[in-house]
Amino acid sequence: MLNPNDGVCYVKINGPAGPSIAGWDWKVPSQSYCQLPGPWESLGVYYLDQSGSGRAAEINVYELDSSISVPSFIAIGRAVQMAGSTMDISTGSQPSNPPTGSIRLWVDGNNNLHLLAADGTDVQEVDTNDPLGPTLLQGTLVNPVLATRAQSNFSNASGPQSGRVHFQTSEANQITSIGVAPNGSASSSQLILNNNSDVMNASRLLLREDGTAAQIWADQIGSGTLLPIIFYVGGAERLRINTDASLTLNNNAVLNSSGPDIISQSGALIAGNGFLFIGSQKDVYFQRLAATSVQLNANLTLAGRLISNGAGIVKPIGFYVGAPSWSSATINTWLTPPFSIAGTFRGLTNDVTMIDLDIVLVHNVANAQIVVGLAIDGSLQHYHNDVLPSGAGNVPKSIHISTQFNIGPGSHTITCQVYNRTSGTLSMDVGSHTLLRVYEVWAAS
Questions:
Q1: What is the DSSP letter of 21?
Q2: Contact 363, 426 (CB under 8 A)
Q3: Class of the 314-442 domain?
């Protein structure tokens, strides 16, 4: 009988075997073979594992061609593989603890490699679903080599994006958040994107947090080129910050590199150190931040009217935007809603005052007839007839007036006036903004 296993075989001649005294005739040690005398018609073998792995035995039984009267037992020992490219480890349940001063490797039923210490501490070292294993992920992954690179298929150039390596949280139905943290008392962290595998000669984009500000850097190192920062939306360029500090919006220049000057699409300077806004009728206004007027450097037209020949000045008188609550059931009388602009005018002969009004009115009767006008110091100067929308009433109607006057010098007040020709209630739509702006175009002196 050959017993190459790490366990004892209890042998019973002509009967069932067991580990009790009456259950065996001979006991064959592990890793040995024996010759046993007969006679025998049947043979019982009971195996007791001593490896700690709970393995079943592999027993070979042979019949001698000669008779013996004395048994013999020969130890064969363990075959030791001194070198080779493979090693087999059977899967199973956790074995018993190894002797003090040693460790035991074993593989569970899910093919995960474990390390078992003499005190019973078991650590899963390799997870078949996670090459790093839970120990490394929950602890510290130390980089033992300077300037090493973590490489995997981050491109999947020949397949779909789903085939790329992705970072994903292991917690079910939760967001994935990638953190970057400094060490010790340092107070800055950053991500660096290079355009060259030679990272010492590359164009770079840095996302940086240094404790004082969150920053985006366009940078270069070595022979790398300093590049602009471009924001894309839907695959199209929307905003570009050039390396000379100039700014383009939708491929149109909007800011000079030399300072905070607003420039036109053609590149001509039209207003310095100020801001620009566009009215409801696509007329354009400019105002200097530190003053009440702006010197224009080129011809400019507003709503088709020439207001500057390069020497004129646009002086803002007042600007009102709001949504006041106002209503009246009075008919056939000029009424004044509660907003106005008062200011001081130069009022020379060739000066022109330009007034723009946007107002949204509602009447509770369909097809109501109204008149909207502009008054200077309470005196009606310009009006506009209109009919509110048909239907069941209470349908808002937007009314725009753009006109110009020559207003004399001194202080004057500009108001809006409305005239209700149809019985019912006329109201300002509080859900819409009302706008009144007044500016004086001074003639060249």
A1: G
A2: yes
A3: mainly beta
